[in-house]
Amino acid sequence: MTGQWFYFQITNMQANVPYRFNIINCQKPACFFGRGMQPVCFSLNDAMVLISRGSSSCQNGGWKRKGTNISYYRNNYKDNIPPQKDTEGNRKRDIARFYTLTFTLNFDHADDIVYVAYHFPYTFSTLQGNLLKWKEKAESIEVLFETQTLTQTLAGLPVSLITITGSARPETPQEKPYVVLTARVHPSESNSSYVMDGVMDFLLSDTQDSRTLLREFVFKIVPMLNPDGVICGNSRCSLAGVDLNRQWTSPSPDIFPTIYHTKNLMDYLHNLGKELYLFVDLHGHSNQKNIFFYGCSPLNDWQRPNIEEEEGFAIFDRRDNGDNGEELTKRIVSAIDSDIDAKGFPLSMKRISSTSTISIRQCSYEVQQVRETCGRVTVWRRFGCPRSYTLESSLCGFDSGPFQVGAAIMKQSNFDFDRALYHVLKFHQTNICFLPQGQQMAIGHLHQTGRDLLKALVKQSPKCSSDKSGELPLQNCPDQENPR
User: Fold this and answer.
1) Element (H, E) at 344
2) pLDDT digits over 105-134, tens only?
3) By three-state DSSP, how is residue 357 classified?
4) Secondary structure of 403-431 in the HEC alphabet?
5) What is the pLDDT of residue 336?
6) Coil, strand, or helix at residue 320?
7) Which among 37, 129, 325, 352 could bridge 32 via Cys, Cβ 3.0 to 4.6 Å?
8) Minimal CA–CA distance to 192: which of 248, 127, 111?
9) pLDDT tens digits, residue range 372-407?
10) Within the chain, how many helices (H) and strands (E) appear?
């Protein structure tokens, strides 16, 4: 385990005996394990029983939320890495303190093999199997689907690049605008891979909406940006020991090849005059609940002048400044248009269904200086793409929207929300030590988020529909009470 992520195997246990686990090298001061989240467990015995009964699938792939008496607290251990200092000798980094996660598990079967993880694991091997499955599916519905090796990691692992588009239009694919989707730059955020699974399932579903998207766009997808970190069990860093999502401004081709070549791909398309319509980098969030976007608005950019002062200058002093006032007004109008574009896509995703998992009140479009080197800001600045986002999915679950109740959710086609409402189970921290199952993140929630992402693209893009009724006015959005 490094940072927060853990994934280990247990054997030789006795049935119905409580076992206490203490993980003592957690590094984050705050963690959802202290606020209602449970670890996930996979029982090989349970899986074999399902197979013997002829069941080809089960909820969450056989993984279950388990654990009682969960707590998270600071211990007495310290990091042995000495404090870092800047050029003037001032301390840049305090001595890190470690934290303990403790929980109790009871096992249903003696001598079982049980896996325990921080979140639903999604391994490099799982991705390789899914690549073959997606290719086979694409061949059956006759879409243009190609898997290439974008580059190799420091450990020599292939980084897959998926290109997928339709062939219904007479134009060549190069004339269509592009959508670039990436995931798993942080290895422990395995939920981002399940969101990407939902994206791929939707694109290959051969429905009217999927055919529309593939007819109008070319999709470039990098499903796993940091395979080295995934295999090594890192939380955020690569084999170079750094956060790859802070290397987008000037990535080294030798040390950060995955970021370098992903950015180079977009550079290449940009130099050919191709439009980058949408960029989404899929992530998981360990300190906030729900699913939400980080976007980029020029009205909330740390580099811009004060917009209120500019607007006043343009309106009231235009007659004294001639063309300067006109130019300033144009810049302000352009900034406002870009702001609307940035905020419109999350609103469309919120509106597409009554079970949408997006929390608008948690979306933020502020461009902070400390985020200047991350993917969404770099793509926004360099390629002028107003719809450049980080999509955050909570590693814990929900405290707003339809899934805050105890609803058992698998996939959208299996929803029975009315029945779930009958079994409402509110979370009261003083009475129970973990969130109800319906409030904790499930694989089905993540699959749905991936599908909703593309449904929003169908509704929001003028290339897919000239009907503007799919756009949601701010005042009608059901989750717009406290927009950030």
Assistant:
1) helix 323-351
2) 999 999 999 999 999 999 999 999 999 999
3) coil
4) HHCCCCCCCHHHCCHHHHHHCCCCCCCCC
5) 76
6) helix
7) 37
8) 127
9) 999 999 999 999 999 999 999 999 888 776 554 322
10) 12, 14
Q: Which residues are catalytic?
A: 392
Q: E strand or H helix at 331, and its extent?
A: helix 323-351
The H or E element containing residue 454 is helix 443-460
Residue written as token pair 């529309």 = 212
The two structure tokens encoding residue 375: 């993917």
Give every CB contact of residue 376 below 8 A, 6+ residues apart in sequence.
279, 281, 294, 295, 296, 388, 389, 390
pLDDT in tens, 207-226: 999 999 999 999 999 999 99
Mean pLDDT of all residues belonging to the chain? 80
Q: Position of tokens 């450049």?
A: 388
Q: Going by C-beta distance under 8 Å and a sequence separation of 6 or more, which residues neighbour residue 285?
A: 392, 393, 394, 395
Q: If DSSP states are collapsed to H, E and C, what string results for 114-158? A: EEEECCCCCCHHHHHHHHHHHHHHHHHHCCEEEEEEEEECCCCCE
* CB 258, CB 225: distance < 8 Å: yes
Classify burial at 83, counting beta carbons within 10 Å of its beta carbon; exposed 0-12, middle 13-18, buried 19 or more. Answer: exposed
Is residue 483's pLDDT more than 70?
Answer: no
- What span, in angstroms and rounded, lies between the C-alpha atoms of 195 and 432? 30
Q: Which residue has the tokens 């499903």?
A: 223
What is the model's pTM? 0.82
The structure tokens listed for 222 are 């990098």
Q: How far is it, in rounded angstroms, from Cα 198 to Cα 204?
A: 10
Q: Given the structure tokens 């002048």, which residue do they identify?
A: 305
As beta bridge partners, residue 85 has 91
**Poorest-confidence range of 30-39, 406-415, 436-445?**
406-415
Q: With beta carbons less than 8 A apart as the criterion, state whether 161 and 265 touch.
A: yes
Cα–Cα nearest to 50, from 68, 38, 62? 62
Question: Of 345, 365, 347, 362, nearest to 300 (Cα)?
Answer: 365
